[in-house]
Amino acid sequence: MNQEKIGKFIASCRKKQKLTQEQLAGKLNITYKAVSKWETGKGLPDASIMKDLCNILKITVNELLSGELIDKNSCDKSAEIKLLEMLKQKEEYEKKLLFIEILLGSLCVLPLITSTIIVGFVEMEEWLSTVIILTSLIPLLVALPFAIRIEQTVGYYVCKHCNHKYIPTFKSVFFAMHLGRTRYMKCPECNKYSWNKKVTSGGNGND
Ligand SMILES: [Zn+2]
Fold it and tell me: How far apart are the first and last CA of the chain?
């Protein structure tokens, strides 16, 4: 795919629809910097918003990825198939990551449960039971940043107030209260706090 050609094509379609970069960004709930990145050929629109983008620009996904208008009678569907494959791959990748997260979490809680049972049933000196409990916490502490990293980077969070989609910072995910994958965080767009739902490319994430 020729990013520069696609970028120029996006810019010309946007102008044809009489939209500024800011207006287009607003319709897609993204920053205008992202739009400018595409148009200068420094990046491609995320697969998850490609369809919305094409609707606004009144072009097909095939045309977007080819970087030009395509004769309606031509039946070259290769770009569309490519996109669907891309989406599918991303979806599977995200599923895998989320599975790893759950596995990691379960594996790390196991030693803690085991040691709690041992300390509860076996008579021993207090210092020893403390050492056992603290040691069993180590895998949890080591794995926690990885689990949060996965949580942060897979898919998006959606603001309840303005529907803005965003990827939060590691810190904000780390400190945010959560119910399953829904987290109480500040939206970078409207600056309001709400319970932000996690959305992956496969659709809604399960809470
Ligand atoms: Zn918001």
Answer: 36
CA 4 to ligand 1 centroid distance, Å: 32
What is the residue extent of each domain of the chain? 3-66, 90-204
pLDDT value for 25: 94
Task: Decide if pLDDT at 167 tops 90.
Answer: no
Taking the C-alpha atoms of residue 70 and residue 77, their distance in angstroms, rounded to an integer, is 11
Q: Are 56 and 15 in contact (CB under 8 A)?
A: no
Beta bridge partners of 186: 193
Return the CATH number of the domain spanning residue range 3-66.
1.10.260.40
For the chain, the residue count is 207
Q: What does the block give as tokens for 161?
A: 């107030």
Burial class (CB in 10 A: 0-12, 13-18, 19+), 38: buried
Q: How far apart are the CA of 193 and the centre of ligand 1, in A?
A: 8
pLDDT score at 36: 93
Which sign does the torsion angle of CA 119, 124, 130, 133 carry? Answer: negative
Q: How far is the CA of 190 from the centre of ligand 1 (A)?
A: 4
Q: How far is the CA of 3 from the centre of ligand 1 (A)?
A: 30
